[in-house]
Amino acid sequence: xxxxxxxxxxxxxxxxxxxxxxxxxxxxxxxxxxxxxxxxxxxxxxxxxxxxxxxxxxxxxxxxxxxxxxxxxxxxxxxxxxxxxxxxxxxxxxxxxxxxxxxxxxxxxxxxxxxxxxxxxxxxxxxxxxxxxxxxxxxxxxxxxxxxxxxxxxxxxxxxxxxxxxxxxxxxxxxxxxxxxxxxxxxxxxxxxxxxxxxxxxxxxxxxxxxxxxx
Amino acid sequence: xxxxxxxxxxxxxxxxxxxxxxxxxxxxxxxxxxxxxxxxxxxxxxxxxxxxxxxxxxxxxxxxxxxxxxxxxxxxxxxxxxxxxxxxxxxxxxxxxxxxxxxxxxxxxxxxxxxxxxxxxxxxxxxxxxxxxxxxxxxxxxxxxxxxxxxxxxxxxxxxxxxxxxxxxxxxxxxxxxxxxxxxxxxxxxxxxxxxxxxxxxxxxxxxxxxxxxx
Lengths: 215, 215
Fold this sequence. Notes:
The structure is a homodimer. Chain A is an all-alpha fold. The first copy, chain A, has two domains: about 35-85, Arc Repressor Mutant, subunit A; about 90-210. Chain A is built from eleven helices and no strands. Chain A has helices at about 35-55, 60-65, 70-80, 80-90, 90-100, 115-130, 130-140, 150-165, 170-180, 185-195, 200-210. In chain A, helix 1 (about 35-55) crosses helix 2 (about 60-65), helix 2 (about 60-65) crosses helix 3 and helix 3 (about 70-80) packs across helix 4 (about 80-90). Chain A is elongated. The relative contact order of chain A is 0.11. The interface between A and B is medium-sized, with 29 and 29 residues. Chains A, B: It comes from Streptomyces carminius.
């Protein structure tokens, strides 16, 4: 998955291969009604497969079979398996992104930057924990996980807040440090393999923000 | 790859499947001379394949063919592809681990903990940059990358130094934050895709240590 725009194809559905998450959320481009119905049908089939067998068993072929369409349709629509997985969490990812970009403070604009940093980490930890299995499957699929759009959005947002907070230093690298704490593979490791409570990770985030911005 | 000891097998070579990197370095268990020769031959064939085709083309089958042995021999010896890849960087990984565990200060024991933290990051960044392609291949292979022994060693070492430095806070989580900065996939992303100089990452490390230990 790439953050550059998808190139046009000779897609028979009249749509481009889907890049469900833009670097920043915006309105989804209009689709023809039949394309939208097709998309909904494929996603419903995919969601059913995930619910029944787990995301690790979700394949493009299985979705095509479950939705009674050709395999090519699924590939044209979602690009690859990572695209399909991201489309499955598109709705909640959009709601999460809209909350920190445009929602009410302290998560959204209007609160002091350090307060927003604190709220962003807590919200992100809970978002990642909720969608852990799907997000882990996306990570495993993506060959260049640091290019995933959701990571890009988080990094950009953290860099902006660090700048506003006057944290100094190399903002881009400090933002990577904060983003690395909010990593679904790390969170999964700590909560699942090490048995840590999410509350401990939330406390750790607040402490980390205080250290990074030197309060 | 797991940090728990390998279980004995009925290996026809008289050796256990290899776990080349222990959580902490120690002497390698003695092997029979023919097993040692066999190991060397396989690793030489693997190194040749990596040099000629890149680590992404290294398979257990290709190594077996190149060394004129059965596929089962390669699997018994290295366990899986991640084990084979780790065996290939075993020598330099041991030297690196010995340097920070037992070597001269400021990297090894004897220097103040913050000075050791600084030296550890710089050494690790250079080590990861040098072996980037092989280490990336290991990461992609490992289904649970946070369980990889080299990560475990680094985390343990960082936690010890943070404790000695009196950093306070949740040492385990702070060590994960520092370790996340020393992540080969992040370093590869920043240097290769974003064109950052390694020197900038090294400066960023020194700044990060100062913030985390609140100096």
